[in-house]
Design brief:
This protein has 18 helices and 28 strands. Helix content is 29%, strand content 24%. It binds adenosine monophosphate. GO terms for molecular function: acetate-CoA ligase activity.
Length: 572
């Protein structure tokens, strides 16, 4: 097995230098700056990677469609030429509303090449959340398919005066002056496009955050973010020459763009993209057949795999797999241990968020894993635990103190704005620090442990209770498949801890089970923290990126308005 790129964490953290890492990028010819699309695609076509596999798409019917770096260069240049022909200005917004199909990837990279700002939307969104994002993001061009156009977009056009064109991926002819045929226009334009000078601070990507609190916010990223995508690919995902990488995230969520598109391409490896949604057996088959070396997925998928009664490494040839990584929500210690046995390789949790644009805290192949911990800050990133009072921020040096997770704001991929929401943006910063909105602890060895969102924390009888801690405990009970915990106002104790529980198959939801679970939690965590109420449910409401929507459970519990549900996974 090849050695990890990051040989020893502590030494490397001390010597790390972003400037030095930047020399691993090429820069536009003639010293004209750094453009994400050039680093991801064009630069590789000057050398040996020109004909090698950049992306393999697996269609719903299992057909494979391969794109080399050379093909991607031509196709993305063509799309950039379409944008020019349609009169788009630099910095204007191109949106996509597509499943994980090749056109989405061509549009993303082609927009970056043109220096437009690319914003991907989840294809499962209905008209209302689409309207909200297209109008808040001032979309000029949207790329979608005929079905979505007819059912979700056409009726909104009157309300979207800035939207000039909709390109339809499966229309053979233009529908009218607004709805144009993507393939026809791709045929018409040249495959030569010269990228204009690109500054590090030029805007590149817009991501609406998952909206677990309040209205969705449009986090804006710049071309310099590619440096984070590059280094995290190298040191966290541990990309090695010739690797096959699979990121299961949809580009509608930031992970699917930063790590489903940019990071693997910038590092010159081959990516797998599956058009299908989660399907345990199919996923194991893909890992085997495509000889995947590095697999990046999410706790929600790992939990679902855990529920299937099988040890994949015994049934499938996973000998190529070197690393499994997870992001998006806490990866419980039990899942880390299960994963290591099930796959026979380390399962590495890492932490980041839409606003940070790339991985910030991680477990590394060469570092001892403490199951349940998010790991240590990326070299080049300073993370700390802080007490925040109004404008004051006090960094905690003592270990094991719970506080706000904050990051020094000087890393390349930090978001540069919430579009049109300057006040909301400013509120995220205190002095030199970016306040993430998460609560965490740091142990004496420098490992970070997630506690919960700052706004999910429950105060009960004077105790601060992190819902994640209670959920983790409940998950240790053999009958529990999933759990979500909220604080329910209760006069005598402030808030009462209430748990919503999904049971594993074969267990019955009844009073005995409720008493059993409460008893179990009281014994393990102490009566002050353990849930006092348990409600059995068939499923938990989640965002499309797999995060439990505690806010929604709470609103339903209290009979309050459910708020923005645009990111809710359907049928919940
Ligand atoms: P998003 O911006 O939608 O990617 O959500 C980011 C949020 O997801 C973070 O602020 C955390 O609350 C949560 N999150 C992401 N990764 C992790 C992780 N490894 N452990 C715990 N929470 C996580």
């Amino acid at each position: 097995m090849r050695k990890p790129n990051l040989a020893e964490y502590n030494t490397f953290y001390k010597v790390f230098d972003w400037k030095k890492e930047q020399s691993g990028l090429t820069g536009l010819p003639g010293g004209k700056g750094i453009n994400i699309a050039y680093e991801a695609v064009d630069r590789h076509t000057e050398g040996q990677l020109k004909d090698s596999l950049a992306i393999r798409f697996i269609r719903k019917d299992d057909q494979r469609e391969d794109y080399s770096y050379g093909m991607l260069k031509d196709l993305t240049a063509k799309f950039a030429n379409i944008l020019r022909k349609l009169g788009l200005e630099e910095g204007e917004r191109v949106f996509s509303l597509l499943g994980r199909v090749p056109e989405l990837y061509i549009v993303a990279l082609g927009s970056l090449k043109y220096k437009a700002v690319f914003c991907p939307l989840f294809s499962v969104f209905g008209p209302e959340p689409i309207l909200q994002r297209l109008s808040r993001g001032d979309a000029r061009i949207l790329v979608t398919n005929a079905q979505f156009y007819i059912h979700k977009i056409k009726g909104l056009l009157d309300q979207l005066p800035s939207l000039k064109y909709v390109l339809i991926t499966d229309a053979t002819e233009d529908f009218d002056d607004v709805a144009l045929s993507f393939p026809k226009w791709m045929e018409r334009v040249s495959k030569d496009f010269e990228i204009r000078p690109t500054n590090l601070e030029d805007p590149a990507l817009l991501h609406f955050t998952s909206g677990t609190t309040g209205m969705p916010k449009g986090a804006l990223h710049v071309h310099q973010a590619v440096l984070t995508h590059f280094t995290t690919g190298k040191y966290v995902l541990d990309f090695q020459k010739g690797d096959v990488f699979w990121c299961t995230a949809d580009p509608g969520w930031v992970t699917g763009t930063s790590y489903g598109i940019i990071s693997p391409l910038v590092n010159g490896v081959s990516s797998i993209i599956d058009e299908n949604e989660f399907d345990g057996m199919r996923w194991y088959e893909i890992l085997e057949k495509e000889k995947v070396n590095v697999w990046y997925t999410a706790p929600t998928a790992i939990r679902r795999l855990m529920r299937m009664d099988l040890v994949p490494k015994e049934r499938y040839d996973l000998s190529h797999l070197r690393l499994v990584l997870s992001v998006g929500e806490p990866l419980h210690a039990g899942a880390v241990v299960w994963g290591e046995n099930a796959f026979g390789v380390p399962v590495l949790d890492n932490w980041w968020q839409t606003e940070t644009g790339g991985i910030m805290i991680a477990n590394y192949r060469s570092m001892k894993v403490k199951p349940g911990s998010m790991g240590k800050p990326l070299p080049g990133v300073v993370a700390a635990i802080a007490n925040i009072k109004e404008e004051d921020i006090i960094i905690q040096d003592q270990p094991d103190i719970q506080g706000h997770l904050v990051l020094k704001k000087d890393f390349p991929s930090i978001f540069r704005a919430y579009l049109h929401e300057e006040e909301r943006y400013k509120k995220c910063f205190k002095g030199d620090w970016y306040v993430t909105g998460d609560l965490a602890k740091k142990d004496k060895d420098g490992y970070f442990w997630f506690v919960g969102r700052a706004d999910d924390i429950i105060k009960t009888s004077g105790h601060m209770v992190g819902p994640f801690e209670v959920e983790s405990t409940l998950m240790k009970h053999p009958a529990v498949a999933e759990a979500a915990v909220i604080g329910k106002p209760e006069a005598s104790i402030g808030e009462l801890v209430k748990a919503f529980v999904v049971l594993k198959e074969g267990y019955e939801a009844n009073e005995d089970m409720e008493l059993d679970l409460i008893g179990f939690a009281r014994k393990t965590m102490g009566p002050a923290v353990a849930p006092k109420e348990i409600e059995f449910v068939d499923s938990l409401p989640k965002t499309k990126s797999g995060k439990i929507l505690r806010r929604l459970l709470k609103a339903r519990e209290l009979g309050l308005p459910e708020g923005d549900l645009s990111t809710l996974e359907k049928n919940q």
